[in-house]
Write a structure and sequence with these properties.
The protein is α+β, with helices and mostly antiparallel strands. Helix content is about 30%, strand content about 25%. It binds flavin-adenine dinucleotide.
Length: about 475
């Protein structure tokens, strides 16, 4: 049986950053991911905002981590060579109730130590965001806010962890964990390994993983939300992240000018327990359109290129055989045992705090193991693949001269070449699905949403993996996966 110091379960943002943080110590660590790629679940469908920290309750772990994370996010992205836009955010309101809440958030932000917060008049808001409804009453400006691409971040963290000695096993769903006295025997597929300690980052399944070895303490209730994505043609319509604080209680609108140049609208919030993953409902989309009409009526909705669903993991304490009345508001770091730590139900701002949370749990486990620091740890990660769109004309011409595959455009909307797709498949954590290629290269993310390039990507994937095109099949409606 293989032996490790740490088994990390789950390869979402949190698992990838936990593995990276473990590499700062001299430990043998392995990450087990159930899916065919990392960042394929919650970390794939979210709002992608880097929060400043004025929303969080003062004194909470969430508040402290968010403020620290926002301050250092640019450095983190530079280290990992991922795109980040510190575009700032403005939270807007249209009446007195919203205004009261903005003032409360301003005070809360000051208490949390958020830098640069400023209350703006309606006129000042319109100077920042001229396309908003002229009825806007006031705004809270937060320059620390920004936006990044969650899977780009997760892939880079995973790549950096591997470069520093961490290991990742995909298609490795953990089905059983047994206490072996001082450690654990972890079963995945038809294999087993022994680990002195476990970090549980299994997202939606984190409570189930914890209950494989311990009595239930926290359970997850799923709720859902929907988004619209607008094409890059509408990208300049919003310059900052816009949060809308509604007059009545409930979920307002969020608008995000994404790093890729699209505008993200949403999410809605379905209140009931929802097991049907990632569905989109006409009711949610209607709500979004109504909110757009109130907040930014001239937004060119004819540029909608897709809608998608997301699922929130809401953690509740298990009490008297049932669940606590209220969900747990702070990040839930459950120390099941000194050598078993679970991150359960981490939702917003989990992306912002992924590096902080990863480090938090990795340091706990390293302290338990008495592990020495890894003096060779290198936090810097250079993106191994080209992004031809970012090259100058001359650089591109040289690339094509050296390898004509870079001159063969597969995705016309995003101008992604065959050469880039091949790199994405062959890379150290190479794509095995059409979705994986999409997230690594952007092919399929443009206006036609893969209408032109999907068949081409399937052909390249099949050829690179030495399989027939017919073996690239649809995987539960989520992505095309190669089946050998
Ligand atoms: C709707 C929504 C919007 C959000 N918006 C923001 C935002 O704007 N800004 C922000 O900072 N944060 C945001 N977040 C929070 C952020 O997206 C999450 O905190 C973060 O992505 C959680 O990552 P994770 O690693 O816990 O989960 P996941 O990404 O789901 O990763 C868990 C992994 O565990 C794997 N797994 C499950 N079971 C097993 C098993 N048995 N064996 C092995 N592997 C297993 C899964 O396949 C999955 O890959 C948002 C969250 C939601 C839901």
């Amino acid at each position: 049986m293989e032996e490790y110091d740490v088994a990390v379960i789950g390869g979402g943002l949190l698992g990838c950053f936990a593995l990276r943080a473990l590499a700062r110590h001299r430990v043998r660590a392995l990450l087990l991911e159930a899916r065919e790629d990392v960042c394929s679940e919650i970390s794939r469908a979210n709002t992608a905002i880097v929060y400043a920290g004025y929303d969080m309750k003062p004194g909470s772990l969430k508040a402290a981590m968010t403020v620290r994370a926002a301050r250092s996010f640019e450095t983190l992205c530079r280290e990992l060579d991922v795109r980040y836009s510190q575009c700032g955010a403005v939270m807007v309101c249209f009446g007195e109730n919203g205004y009261q809440r903005l003032q409360k958030k301003l005070r809360q932000g000051a208490e949390n130590g958020v830098a640069g917060l400023k209350l703006l008049s309606g006129r000042e808001v319109l100077e920042l965001e001229p396309n908003l409804s002229p009825n806007v009453r006031a705004g809270l400006y937060a320059p620390q806010c920004g936006t990044a691409i969650p899977w780009e971040l997760g892939l880079a963290a995973a790549g950096n962890a591997i470069a520093n000695g961490g290991k990742i096993r995909l298609n490795a769903a953990v089905t059983d964990i047994r206490d072996s006295g001082g450690g654990y025997v972890v079963t995945y597929g038809n294999q087993r390994l022994s680990a002195k300690s476990v970090i549980n980052c299994a997202g939606m399944n984190a409570a189930k993983i914890s209950e494989m070895a311990f009595a239930p303490k926290v359970r997850i209730v799923r709720t859902a939300g929907n988004y619209y994505v607008l094409d890059t043609k509408a990208g300049a319509f919003v310059k900052h992240v816009v949060f809308h604080e509604p007059e009545k209680k409930g979920k307002g609108l969020t608008l995000v000018p994404s790093v890729g140049g699209n505008i993200l609208i949403g999410p809605t919030e379905r209140k009931y327990d929802c097991s049907d993953d990632y569905s989109v409902t006409s009711e949610d989309l209607r709500q979004l359109r109504e909110l757009v009409f109130e907040v930014i009526p001239s937004l060119p909705m004819e540029h909608i290129i897709r809608s998608f669903g997301a699922v929130r993991p809401n953690p509740y304490y298990v009490e008297n055989g049932g669940l606590s009345e209220k969900s747990i508001n702070d990040f839930c770091v459950l120390e099941n045992a000194p050598n078993f730590v679970s991150l359960i139900g981490v939702k917003t701002p989990g992306m912002t705090c992924s590096a902080e949370l990863g480090r938090h749990v990795a340091d706990k486990i390293a302290a338990y193991l008495g592990a020495a620091r890894n003096g060779n740890f290198n936090p810097a990660q250079r993106r191994s693949a080209h992004r031809a769109q970012e090259l100058t004309f001359d650089e591109r011409r040289q690339l094509v001269a050296a390898n004509p595959a870079y001159g063969s455009i597969a995705c016309r909307c995003r101008e992604v070449s065959e050469g880039e797709i091949i790199e994405a498949i062959r890379g150290p954590l190479g794509a095995a699905t059409v979705d994986g290629v999409k997230r690594r290269t952007g092919a399929g993310m443009g206006r036609c949403q893969g209408g032109f390039c999907q068949q081409r990507v399937i052909e390249i994937l099949a050829r690179e993996r030495g399989l027939s095109k017919a073996s690239v099949t649809k995987n539960g409606g989520k992505s095309y996966i190669l089946r050998s």
